[in-house]
Amino acid sequence: MSQPILVVAECKGSSIRRVTFEAIAVAQKLLQQRAGAVHCFLAGPGEGAELQQAARELLTYGASEVHLASSSEQTESNALASLKPLQSLVQQLQPQFVIAGHTAYGRELAPRLAASLASGYIADATAVELLDDGFAFTRPLYAGKAFETRSFTGAAPHIVTIRPNNHETAAPLEAVAAANESAINTLPASASPLRSIVREVVSRVSSGIDLTEADIIVAGGRGVRGSEGFQLLQQLADQLGGAVGASRAACDAGYCDYSLQIGQTGKVVTPQLYIACGISGAIQHLAGMSQSRTIIAINKDPEAPIFSIADYGIVGDLFEIVPLLTDELKKL
Ligand code: FAD
Question: What is the pTM of this model?
Answer without folding.
Answer: 0.84
